[in-house]
Design goal:
InterPro entries: AA-Vitamin_Transporters (IPR050638), EamA_dom (IPR000620), EmrE-like (IPR037185). The chain is mainly alpha-helical. It contains twelve helices and no strands. Helices cover 71% and strands 0% of the residues.
Amino acid sequence: MGRLEVALVMRWGVVATLVSATAFGLMPVFASYAYGTGMSVTTLLAARFAIAAAVFLAWLGVRGRLTRLTGRQWATLALLGGGMYTTQSLLYFTAVERIGPAPAALLLYLYPGLVSVLSALAERTRPGWTTVGPTLVSLAGLTLVVGRVQAGLDVLGMLAALGSAVAYACYIVLGSRVSTALSPAVTTAYLSMFATGSFLVLGLATGGLDLGFAAAGWAWAATVAIVSTVLAIALFFVGATTLGPVRASLLSMFEPVVAVVAAWLLLGGSLTTLQLAGGAVVLAGAAWGVLSAADRAAVSRPGAGSVPAADEVRASGGSAGSGAPPVSGRAPGAGRGPASV
């Protein structure tokens, strides 16, 4: 392949990754529109994952890529998708509902620093500056985003956003250490399927599964599923394959920027100058965390896992994204899968 062909392929990888990040970044805005129709968080997430699972499984079936799973693989995917991924998504979408898309998206990006710390603890190694530093930087940004505690502060919403970052980091660390011998696409399909089951059970048990919303809610749920889940994850896979997971993860940090701008333009939301500065600091810590994780992965033992992550991470180890994606996806140091799935 000549230089021109390589340049064109790399350019396509950059475009695919940025479009993926844009789709993930718009997800909390689409969710806000869905909430405006009277749709609950649980109902939206059940619809999102049901549609996404159906699309992924149908595509894999047409391509003849559905494989028979072992008992251990079923158990692993049930834990990751039905348990940890479900928890992360529920916390993140609850935060979006309570505090808005912009703060929720920025706070989610605490996860790369947390992944560094949790990975060091799991490997029983003494955390060095490249492990602790990204977390401290992100926490410093967090204080600016949250600002001074006031009576109007939605503490539960802030805690949900922080909890989503912690849950996503745990999901990535565990998923990257549990190899299912499945491709990211297959893993993402089954994770979505198990997440659907969990949200249906949760909704029926708590009464949160309510279909009494306006008809427009279905359109917004489908948009979240098709644009901000299926399309976003697929394009992240393209970008990560072309550029590598580290570069794709760094470009994916365009996601919270999209979330902040879209919330401002479409929802009338706003952040103070201090909060915007805090968001930039959080992203700087996230970038440091991604690069540090890549350095550690380069010297660690091979074959340490390929489970996708979402909403990201979101594809190289997820973004969280903001919607937590496959574990081998957008998570730093994970294999290749999305943050916001």
